[in-house]
Write a structure and sequence with these properties.
Strand content: 15-25%
Radius of gyration: 31 Å
CATH class of the largest domain: Alpha Beta
Distance between the termini: 62 Å
Number of strands: 15
């Protein structure tokens, strides 16, 4: 009897083991994403040759800018002549700005007519003598800058808006910009931008930009009389039509104007973050980078590949990276970079099955746009397929197409397979 019982128990155990082997495991939920990617590279076409280049030098003329202004005065004619060797038709314009004039008056305790929100000294011209006269107007007879800027900030966004549009600022809407109105108003001053030209503003400053729509910090805290008085001025200016930060950026982009920034002063130049913001917003990047010392992009004044065209400089506007990297050379090189560069866009022509059951395969391009690419330069994009499952998916057939300036210049088949 005992032997019979033992045999029965062994049989039951065997049956249970067999049952466990035949029952499929319960599906396990997973957040694993599957992906596959391929790089696709193209070489940009030869330069078509830009026939026109318009450059407006927008100079901060507050008290700390003496040496940078003199640098521009000494070199503007040289820069014009050197660029003429690369571009058939080059024109320069010169304008100046400080802070909003009523805020300058508040900071100084009196209005100085030499202070300006924005003044165009010369519209776009190829006449070297006219330019030389215009840059001379950036300083007083004793060589000091024309403006004061006693509060330490500058109306950079308003100056950019006026440089881009030339529409002026009529705060009381009376059509008068002079006399008592001159304190708050800016007369219309079109720079003369040409429709087919490459357009660039070279902005040279050491000051942070006022954002008219925001409360500015004060000399004695956020609740002192200075803050209250400046807020009242800003409110009046904004109600009268002064440009917000976003309006300035929109005006630059609507007019296809790039920005090259010269952040004057020290490694911690207060203007650098604002200039960088504008350069990025207007798509002003260098694909290959800038460094007077070759490929050493750690040097102050250098810009690594893909970075916005904003240079940190010494008090005279020369990059620290090398004594030979003068403002003149830097400007000619960076403007030539903008003239010859183009933006390259990749698009995908997709055919074939791209689904696995209910799950859509997502195609990703990185980057979607390569900005500031020189002619005859290889530019690469990554095409990646992603789907939310650990299982395989049916992947589509893809043709990658590239275009620059709205013109397609190449295509390649892209095979995505695991």
């Amino acid at each position: 009897m005992k032997r019979f019982t033992l045999l029965i128990c062994l049989s039951l155990a065997a049956c249970e083991e067999a049952r466990l082997r035949t029952i499929p495991p319960e599906p396990i939920e997973t957040n694993v994403r599957r992906e596959v990617s391929r790089d696709v590279c193209f070489k940009t076409p030869k330069a078509e040759g830009i026939k026109q280049l318009d450059v407006l030098f927008l100079m901060d003329t507050t008290g700390s800018m003496t040496f940078a202004i003199k640098n521009l005065q000494d070199n503007v004619r040289t820069m014009l002549e050197e660029l003429k060797l690369q571009v058939a038709d080059v024109r320069f314009a010169v304008a100046r700005f400080d802070d909003y004039r009523p805020i300058c008056a508040l900071a100084q305790g009196t209005d100085d007519p030499s202070d300006t929100t924005y003044t165009l000294l010369a519209p776009l011209t190829s006449d070297g003598d006219v330019l030389q006269t215009a840059v001379a107007g950036l300083t007083r007879p004793d060589g000091a800058p024309m403006g004061n800027g006693a509060d330490g900030l500058a109306c950079g966004y308003e100056a950019l808006y006026q440089a881009a549009t030339g529409v002026g600022l009529d705060t009381n809407k009376d059509g008068v910009y002079f006399g008592v109105d001159a304190l708050y108003d800016v007369a219309p001053m079109p720079a003369g931008w040409r429709g087919e030209a490459k357009k660039v503003i070279v902005m040279i400053t050491d000051a942070s930009f006022v954002e008219i729509e925001k409360q500015r910090s004060g000399r004695g805290g956020t609740n002192d009389t200075w803050v209250q008085d400046t807020r009242a001025i800003q409110d009046k200016l904004q109600q009268g039509g002064a440009a917000t930060k976003q309006q300035a950026l929109d005006a630059l982009n609507m007019n296809n104007i790039k920005l090259v920034g010269i952040a004057v002063g020290t490694q911690r130049s207060e203007s650098f973050p604002d200039l960088r913001t504008v350069a990025e917003a207007t798509g002003t990047f260098t694909f290959t980078g800038f460094s007077p010392l070759g490929t050493d992009y750690t040097q102050l004044g250098a810009i690594s590949p893909g970075g916005p065209l904003v240079f940190r400089t010494d008090a005279a506007g020369n990059p620290y990276a090398s004594g030979k990297a003068t403002m003149a050379k830097t400007m000619v090189d960076s403007l030539a970079d903008i003239v010859n560069a183009t933006d390259v866009k990749l698009t995908l022509d997709v055919t074939g099955e791209s689904k696995r059951t209910e799950e859509q395969v997502q195609l990703v391009i990185e980057p979607q746009l390569a900005e500031g690419v020189p002619p005859e330069t290889e530019v690469c994009f990554t095409v990646r397929a992603e789907w939310p499952s650990a299982r395989k998916a049916a992947l589509p057939s893809i043709t990658a197409k590239v275009e620059t300036n709205g013109k397609e210049f190449g295509d390649k088949a892209v095979t995505l397979a695991e």
